[in-house]
Design goal:
binds zinc ion, two-stranded antiparallel ribbon, 11 helices, 2 domains, 413 residues, alpha+beta
Length: 413
């Protein structure tokens, strides 16, 4: 049977179609196609045609360099189609284009067994480096006489931060498992000698997400639970922070600075959620001030991590939500716009007297790279979202607003 072969002049991509695709350009890189005729032995694909026969009616069949593509309409539910193809080692993806369903079949890579040794080693390293960061926060407080025991205070900081990051990642892991998506164990990222001791944690998703609803749930579960954990940690932190007369505090800080020349003081920009928690739980008598306990710092870091993850870029948590709500094209646009805005915010800091975090420039560049890689999308992107899913997305936006500040941290002049 004569098929049409479309071969990219630039990359390895090709498509061999039963009927004309009316295409001139390679979808992978945008360069021109060379078009040939090719004789295809259809018997070679009879196993595929027999599998699909009663479940999908197709008008065109395309052999692509990395997948098979059927263009037509579904006869069975997608869940049935998914079941029969996963049984023979293929992941089906459906997209809607010009009123037709495009069914792509990708060979499923057997996900490697989730190894626990590396996640455990990283967790131990992160516990140590976060403990050390907590120690650096505790030493000045001890010298100024505001806490009793450095080791206890450092441990409390460490437990608070690991609790927040751990709950965030476990929420992703559990939601992934519930939706039959294969995800790794959390990888914690240690940052020895950095003032918070970590760059957060992440899990990797190793099998495709079934649908847009599941993508929203998997993406949002981490920031939602991490946010709640941060609120708990900040609230306890405020409760255990010493309240002392402002004059005594000023004297202690001045004495400390005089005896430790060259030291730097780190401040944290205020987020809405922190402001709200202070208003709720802090009742300062006239002339008194709060000595911020390192546990509060752990909670503020948790809030910052939540905001970072909710940025709608690539395959970050916020990226999963954006892809489900906006679709492929606008997800890419929003991803790149977000990344460029972060770079803009970072540079703005050099012009304003307001201490904007210069780290946004680096984060924006990383975000742009992440964004350029796009998002594979869920297997079923045809089934529409329900109102409930959209409410979840709005909750994500509200949490982001509560957690974002252009100045997560700065050096106090
Ligand atoms: Zn190409
Ligand atoms: Zn996350």
């Amino acid at each position: 049977m004569m098929y049409k072969r479309y071969e990219c002049a630039n990359c390895d991509f090709y498509e061999i179609a039963k009927y004309d695709l009316h295409k001139e350009k390679c979808p992978a890189c945008g360069h021109n196609y060379h078009v040939f005729e090719e004789d295809i032995d259809e018997d070679k694909y009879s196993w595929l045609f027999n599998t699909i026969k009663n479940h999908f009616y197709f008008e065109n069949f395309v052999i692509r360099s990395n997948s098979f593509l059927f263009i037509g309409n579904m006869i069975s539910d997608f869940s049935k189609i998914r079941e029969i193809f996963e049984n023979i080692g293929y992941y089906p993806f459906i997209r809607k284009k010009e009123g037709k369903i495009y069914l792509h079949l990708f060979k499923a890579k057997k996900p490697g067994k989730s190894r626990v040794i590396i996640p455990i080693a990283l967790l131990v390293a992160t516990i140590l480096s976060v403990f050390y960061a907590g120690y650096s926060w505790a030493v000045p407080l001890k010298e100024m006489g505001f806490i009793d025991n450095i080791w206890v205070t450092s441990s409390i900081f460490m437990m608070g931060l690991i609790f927040i990051l751990g709950s965030h990642e476990l929420a992703h892991k559990i939601t992934a498992m519930k939706n039959k998506v294969d995800a790794s164990w959390p990888y914690f990222i240690p940052m020895p000698l950095f003032i918070i001791g970590t760059m957060g944690a992440l899990i990797t998703i190793k099998s495709p997400i079934p649908d847009k609803k599941a993508a929203i749930k998997i993406g949002l579960s981490g920031p939602l639970i991490g946010f709640i954990a941060s609120v708990i940690v900040i609230s306890i932190g405020i409760a255990i922070s010493p309240v002392v007369p402002a004059t005594e505090y000023m004297r202690a800080v001045e004495t400390f600075n005089a005896t430790h020349p060259g030291g730097i003081t780190i401040g944290f920009g205020q987020t809405l959620i922190y402001r709200i928690l202070l208003d709720l739980f802090l009742n300062l008598p006239e002339g008194y001030t709060l000595v911020t306990h390192p546990l509060v710092v752990a909670g503020i870091v948790g809030v910052f991590v939540t905001a970072l993850n909710l940025l709608p870029m690539g395959q970050l948590d916020g990226g999963h939500v954006a892809r489900s709500i906006l679709g492929e094209k606008y997800h890419m646009l929003v991803s790149k716009t977000t990344a460029l805005s972060l770079i803009g915010i970072g540079f703005l800091g050099s012009f304003l007297r307001y201490p904007i975090w210069p780290g946004w420039i680096l984060w924006g560049f990383i975000g742009y790279l992440i964004s350029s890689r796009g998002h594979p999308g869920a297997m079923d992107e045809v089934t529409e979202l329900t109102g409930e899913d959209k409410i979840l997305a709005v909750i994500g936006i509200i949490i982001f607003i509560l957690c974002f500040t252009p100045t997560p941290l700065y050096v106090v002049p």
